[in-house]
Design goal:
heterodimer; A: alpha/beta; 2 domains; 6-stranded mixed sheet; 5-stranded mixed sheet; 6 helices; 42% helix; elongated; disordered C terminus; B: mainly alpha; Cytochrome C Oxidase, Chain A; 63% helix; 0% strand; globular
Chain lengths: 299, 552
């Protein structure tokens, strides 16, 4: 091949591949709608990787197919190809380029992870590293609560070891218990228990997750968040729902025969609707509580 | 090490009249110590299990044609998914790639008469049939239902007898793999023909070296985990029982410390097969021999430091999530080096469109898809959404079906003439290739979408919104099941009545092609002497290897 056509070819292929990759990165439509503050972070990160992946796939697969056609054996030609064993510069390039790509992705990944709250599990400031005096106290209470009260319902007593947390107080705290084959949601401050999760929109929600029997995994695809419920370990998940509506809650960890049927829904309400739901359930579940009536009356 | 001294005498110890020149059919069912026969035993055994595991997959995909669990009982579904995964890994890919190709090829490629420890070799193989029987037999006790990962506490409370059988089966298979690995390392270190330097050793052998080292380092850890699990189930210990002070996370660490490297145990020998098949059929020296050797070793090393990426959503502190994100991403670099090297090998070649080559190219393209989706899964933020979904199922089927099964097929088409002395039928091979490629993509490509949209894996019933995509996958699975038929017909017919193969039908340069097809019992009458590198295609005066055995 002559020099000029080759460079034009390279340029054209480069432009086409770049255009397709950019388009694919923005229009892959792989994800369901974004309903949490964390979702766009994950999606943008994925789309960047998807863009790079599409470009790399087109280049590699395209090169392979081009070589397969260009360098096919011609009829009657039983000879060998070019005796070329290596090229140090070329090998250095294709070691360096992927290395740079993965380092960039690695750094970006840490940033997304930090923004999602991944570096702060430990529940409302209970991080072992930063707040050791708090966690000592909490560990003690946790031991007590583990043995005495299986439904450790008070927020302060829940010391999560793993998950996505935050250092400040969450607006809503819900204790989530996974069991074969249901999710139980308990609102400790209001003493309300439900089979679906109800939360207000645009508020930080903290889920304190426990497992009653085997490992389950709490997953809301529209929130892009997942956390295992592990027997013997407390975990947590902190997020902010950004869109009113209802979304599936799925168990993602094999938990027995009816694992596939362990599904419920999360309802994201406006604050008013949420307060109303809470009050009604509080009243329905604890009809003799005067406090419940008071909350209802305040509206 | 008396056996390791074998290559010193280059003449066959006894006159060949003492030895039979070919095997009888019943030899394949005996405790025979010949490495080639053991290799074929491994291959046939594992292929039978491939069919068994494939049948399980077809039943599961049939169940998933509709959203409800209306074909089989959900507990049976879980038993099927557990055993499908276990059989495909421990009964098919690992024994076929390491046991089958490794045993048949390593001594032939390095100019040895047999493995260093022939009896140990046979012992390692004969541990597998009981392991397989334990797995299949567990169905009579309900079948292990906790997935191939068998996380406690689920594995402690469901189907105890079946779960115990599952544990024993994997421990047996693991022991077999440890024995095999010791044998490979010693064979390659001590028994190379004297004229072969390390940098003239074929790349398949280097891949087997990396595989064996990895197996030796990681398999004992799995054995520990499963032994403790077995004790918990049967002897009242509580290593993993959370309500009695046990820790379920420890099991996951022990399990994945082996089972992530297991991915490389499956893929490294296949990489080796690729590095043999592509140069021969492209008539080109392999591009970047040293880079390929180095990348195998680097994959082996980094492979030991990435296991926690399977646990991003379970018990993983933040620093671990980040450390293992980065180490996981780094694996992409040596893997990329291999892909680029194979691609560059094609440049300037004279590519033969043989079935072996087609499967090798099919593998390259499938594996690129699996590798790229692997990068997305390797990062903690994205993995937290995708973990335990069909996206993961899609990813590892692209890697393990596209990347391993295609490679095994490429290897079979390439070495079948050497193993049996008969050529496989090429047109039938091409039909097989097309059906496999189409079937695999129809089955596994849509699964990416299922996963990102919100369908978890390991479910017998799912949200009806996923029905259509699941139906496409199921149809693909039927095509895939059907694709085995031309292959089976081809192998059976060609083995019996196929065209006779010469000693070196592909005009390859590695040593296994310097003996007869099939090779005689101690491989050569007179050990071959290396006169050229394994991939010196196109260099003047270096034509295909001579058949030295016929010159005896």
């Amino acid at each position: 091949m002559k020099q000029l056509p080759a460079s034009i070819w390279t340029l054209t292929v480069g432009i086409v591949v770049t255009l397709i990759a950019f388009w694919a990165g923005g229009h892959n439509g792989l994800f369901p709608e974004q309903a949490s503050a964390q979702a766009p972070l994950v999606d943008n990160f994925f789309n960047l990787m998807f863009m790079i992946a599409v470009a790399l796939f087109l280049l590699v697969a395209g090169t392979i197919i081009f070589f397969m056609i260009q360098f096919r054996q011609r009829p009657g030609d039983e000879g060998d190809g070019v005796p070329l064993e290596g090229d140090f510069a070329l090998e250095a390039y294709w070691t360096l380029i992927p290395a740079v790509i993965v380092i960039v992705l690695g750094i970006y990944s840490v940033e997304v992870f930090t923004e999602m709250g991944g570096f702060a599990p430990g529940g409302g400031g209970g991080n072992h590293l930063f707040m050791s005096h708090h966690s000592h106290h909490k560990m003690k209470t946790q031991l007590v609560s583990d043995t005495d009260a299986p439904d450790a319902s008070m927020t302060e007593e829940f010391n999560a070891e793993y998950g996505f947390g935050g250092t400040d107080q969450a607006d809503v705290t819900v204790t989530v218990t996974g069991m074969q084959y249901a999710w139980i949601f308990n609102y400790p401050e209001q003493n309300v228990t439900a089979g679906e999760l109800h939360i207000p929109v645009d508020k930080t929600v903290q889920l304190n997750i426990k497992a009653a029997d085997v490992i389950h995994s709490f997953w809301v695809p529209q929130f892009r968040l997942k956390q295992d419920a592990i027997p013997g370990h407390n975990t947590e998940l902190r997020f902010t729902a950004t869109k009113v509506g209802d979304y599936p809650v799925v168990c993602a960890e094999l938990c027995g025969g009816y694992h596939g049927a362990m599904r419920t829904r999360v309802y994201v309400h406006t604050q008013t609707e949420y307060d109303q739901w809470l009050a009604e359930n509080q009243f329905a579940q604890n009809p003799d509580l005067s406090g419940a009536v008071a909350v209802h009356a305040e509206e | 090490m008396a056996q390791a001294q074998l290559p010193v005498s280059s003449e066959l110890p006894q006159a060949s009249g003492h030895h039979p020149t070919a095997w009888k059919w019943y030899d394949y069912f005996t405790f025979n110590v010949d490495h080639k026969l053991i290799g074929i035993q491994y291959l046939v055994f594992s292929f039978v299990f491939y069919l068994v595991g494939g049948l399980m997959a077809v039943v599961m995909r049939t169940e998933l044609y509709t959203p409800d669990a209306d074909v089989i009982d959900p507990n049976l579904y879980n038993a099927l998914l557990t055993n499908h995964g276990t059989i495909m890994i421990f009964g098919w890919i690992v024994p076929a790639a390491i046991g089958g190709f490794g045993n048949f090829l390593v001594p032939l490629m390095i100019g040895a008469r047999d493995m260093a420890f022939p009896r140990l070799n046979a012992l390692a193989f004969w541990m597998l049939p009981p392991a397989g029987l334990l797995l299949v037999g567990s169905f009579f006790f309900g079948g292990a239902q906790a997935g191939w990962t068998s996380y406690p506490p689920l594995s402690l409370i469901t189907a105890n007898t079946a779960q115990s059988m599952w544990c024993l089966s994997i421990i047996l298979a693991g022991t077999s793999s440890i024995l095999g690995s010791v044998n490979f390392v010693v064979t390659m270190v001590k028994m190379r023909v004297p004229s072969m330097a390390w940098d003239q050793m074929p790349l398949f052998c280097w891949a087997m070296m990396a595989t064996s080292v990895l197996a030796l380092l990681s398999t004992p850890v799995l054995a520990i985990g499963l032994t403790l699990l077995f004790f918990d189930i049967n002897f009242g210990t509580s290593f993993f029982k959370p309500d009695a002070g046990g820790n379920v996370i420890i099991y996951q660490h022990l399990f994945w410390f082996y089972s992530h490297p297991a991915v490389y145990l499956m893929i490294l020998p296949i990489f080796g097969i690729m590095s043999e098949v592509i140069p021969v059929h492209a008539r080109k020296p392999i591009f970047g021999y040293k880079a390929i050797v180095g990348s195998s070793m680097v994959i082996c090393l980094i492979g030991l430091f990435v296991w926690v990426h399977h646990m991003f959503t379970s018990g993983t502190p933040p620093w671990m999530r980040m450390f293992f994100t980065v180490s996981t991403l780094i694996v992409a670099v040596p893997t990329g080096v291999k892909i680029f090297s194979w691609t560059a090998t094609l440049w300037g070649g004279k590519i033969r469109y043989t079935s072996a080559m087609l499967f090798a190219i099919g593998l390259l393209i499938m594996f690129v898809v699996g590798g790229l989706s692997g990068v997305t899964l390797g990062t903690a933020p994205v993995d937290i959404h995708m973990h335990d979904t069909y996206y993961v199922v899609a990813h590892f089927h692209y890697v393990l079906f596209g990347g391993s099964v295609f490679g095994l097929y490429a290897g079979i088409y390439h070495w079948f003439p050497k193993m049996t002395g008969k050529m496989l039928n090429e047109p039938l091979g091409k039909v097989h290739f097309l059906l496999t490629l189409i079937g695999a993509n129809i089955t596994f490509l849509p699964m990416h979408v299922l996963g990102t949209q919100g369908m978890p894996r390991r479910v017998a019933m799912y949200d009806p919104q996923f029905t259509h995509i699941n139906q496409i996958c199921t149809i693909g699975a039927f095509v895939l099941a059907f694709s085995v038929i031309p292959f089976l017909v081809n192998v059976v017919w060609s083995w019996g009545w196929g065209e006779k193969a010469s000693g070196n039908p592909w005009r390859a340069l590695t040593l296994e092609w310097t003996t007869a097809s099939p090779p005689i019992i101690e491989n050569w009458h007179r050990l071959p002497v290396l006169t050229q590198g394994p991939y010196d295609y196109g260099f003047n005066g270096h034509e295909e290897a001579e058949i030295t055995s016929s010159h005896f």
